[in-house]
């Protein structure tokens, strides 16, 4: 196949499997059955591995809430206010200061070092930091370790988003992002139950129960990071070098498949100008703002849900730890269902709207109903909508970006704004607003409404540009050498 011959519309996985030859004259050397086996091998090796590592990533950055009600707040005096912000909120948000700053260079580093070396190294290192948090003797020490954790975790999520986008076509990636994030959601669901079990180690070796949460989970992270070195794979152009994961013919099939869809599977020469040029596209900032709104709600739940269940809804500490799990289980179901529907019907914007409507129904129920059991039902809807929107937004962006370095820049900006959402999520539920936390609920509702407005604006702009491209007035997202024309935006 000549790499500058691309179809005028993207080739879906279903279409490619129905016929090994497409309208451009390209004929694949693998049968449809062999193609399925190769793709499924990639799924098992890549999606499962990064998903398992993301489990510990999400668990390690959000287990503060479980430790807080297990005795950490009282022992380290985290309810003390610095102005209007509590020490607990400061500990949650200092993580994101370095998390945001170190993300753009991380997406450049991963392209050169390769994801297998880079990702597994930072996983092992932040696992060691987590173990150190179990021995923190003051608020200042805990905050400093959270800063270091932010530096190390900064490279993980954007690199994974970037890595997955290089392996799959535009209408295959939604389900894979969903599966990737589902594993993280399941970690959030089980984290509370795991934390409750680890609390029972209180008194062992003279350590309080909350310390064992950090120590055991940190040791688990180090173990999975070491295992990940042999399990993780590199970018498609290096796939045949990753422990005989794919041979050269199979790797070429993956590269050709992505090239036929969007023409950017092969690595481009390094260019700082190309990297930052992505910032000139206003849609990139629209996607980033959607991600900010989404993560504000999802991080607010991650950092405060056990506290809200305990203080606002009257559940015991043990029940509050365990009742976190069911809403995240529902989120996993909604996440995969919307990811599947988005890929099958080539939809992105409507999926995001649906998820935000779930939040807009759930938040008022969660905050204002008189019955705590009904308020807990609102937690289900809010958790499902907010968390399902994370992979939906990643897919939305991935479908509308082309070029290796623009993709790297946009992944960094998207996840960077997610980090800013983490800061706002760590601040919306303030100590002085308990037990109702109404200002925080209003802030989350405002984020959901803003997302709906941005999706409408991006959809109108994309529709208009697609029409102009159909009339031959403009060419969308073409490479610098002018090849691979025929790209259309997805909305």
UniProtKB/TrEMBL annotation:
Protein name as it appears in the record: Phthalate transporter-like protein
Species of the source: Clathrospora elynae
Transmembrane segments: 46-73, 85-106, 118-136, 142-165, 177-198, 210-232, 284-309, 315-337, 349-368, 374-396, 408-428, 440-460
Lipid bilayer topology: Multi-pass membrane protein
SUPFAM superfamilies: MFS general substrate transporter (SSF103473)
Subcellular location: Membrane
Annotated Major facilitator superfamily (MFS) profile domain residues: 46-463
Main subcellular localisation: membrane
Molecular function as annotated in GO: transmembrane transporter activity
GO CC terms, sorted: membrane
Top-level taxonomy: Eukaryota, Fungi, Dikarya, Ascomycota, Pezizomycotina
Any matching Pfam family: MFS_1
Keywords noted in UniProt: Membrane, Transmembrane, Transmembrane helix, Transport
């Amino acid at each position: 196949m000549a790499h500058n011959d691309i179809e005028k519309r993207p080739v879906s996985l279903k279409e490619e499997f129905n016929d090994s030859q497409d309208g451009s004259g390209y004929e694949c050397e693998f049968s449809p059955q062999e193609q399925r086996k190769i793709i499924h091998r990639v799924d098992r090796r890549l999606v499962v591995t990064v998903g398992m590592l993301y489990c510990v990533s999400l668990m390690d950055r959000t287990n503060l809430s479980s430790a807080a009600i297990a005795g950490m707040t009282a022992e380290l005096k985290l309810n003390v206010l610095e102005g209007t912000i509590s020490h607990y909120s400061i500990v949650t948000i200092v993580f994101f200061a370095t998390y945001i700053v170190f993300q753009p260079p991380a997406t450049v580093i991963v392209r050169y070092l390769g994801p297998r070396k880079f990702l597994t190294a930072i996983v092992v290192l932040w696992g060691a930091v987590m173990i150190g948090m179990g021995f923190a003797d003051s608020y200042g020490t805990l905050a400093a370790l959270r800063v270091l954790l932010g530096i190390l975790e900064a490279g993980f999520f954007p690199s994974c988003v970037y890595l997955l986008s290089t392996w799959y076509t535009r209408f295959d990636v939604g389900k894979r992002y969903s599966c990737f994030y589902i594993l993280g959601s399941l970690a959030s669901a089980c984290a509370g139950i795991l934390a409750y079990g680890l609390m029972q180690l209180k008194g062992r070796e003279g350590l309080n129960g909350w310390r064992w949460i950090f120590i055991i989970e940190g040791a688990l992270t180090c173990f999975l990071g070491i295992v990940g070195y042999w399990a993780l794979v590199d970018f498609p152009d290096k796939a045949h070098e990753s422990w005989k994961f794919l041979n050269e013919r199979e790797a070429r099939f993956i590269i050709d498949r992505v090239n036929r869809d969007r023409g950017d599977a092969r690595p481009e020469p390094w260019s700082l100008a190309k990297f930052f040029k992505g910032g000139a596209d206003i849609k990139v900032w629209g996607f980033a703002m959607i991600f900010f709104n989404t993560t504000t709600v999802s991080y607010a739940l991650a950092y405060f849900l056990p506290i809200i269940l305990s203080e606002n809804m009257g559940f015991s500490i043990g029940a509050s730890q365990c009742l976190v799990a069911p809403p995240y289980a529902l989120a996993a179901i909604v996440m995969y269902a919307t990811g599947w529907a988005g890929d099958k019907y080539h939809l992105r914007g409507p999926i995001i709207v649906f998820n935000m409507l779930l939040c807009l129904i759930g938040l008022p129920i969660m905050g204002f109903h008189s019955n705590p059991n009904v308020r807990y039902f609102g937690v289900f809807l809010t958790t499902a909508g907010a968390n399902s929107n994370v992979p939906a937004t990643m897919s939305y962006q991935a479908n509308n970006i082309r070029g290796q370095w623009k993709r790297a820049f946009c992944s960094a900006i998207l996840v960077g704004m997610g980090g800013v959402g983490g800061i706002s999520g760590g601040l919306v539920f303030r100590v002085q607003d308990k037990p109702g936390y109404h200002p925080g609920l209003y802030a989350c509702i405002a984020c959901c409404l803003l997302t709906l407005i941005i999706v409408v604006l991006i959809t109108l702009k994309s529709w208009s540009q697609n029409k102009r491209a159909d009339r031959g007035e403009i060419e969308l997202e073409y490479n610098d050498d002018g090849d691979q024309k025929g790209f259309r935006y997805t909305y």
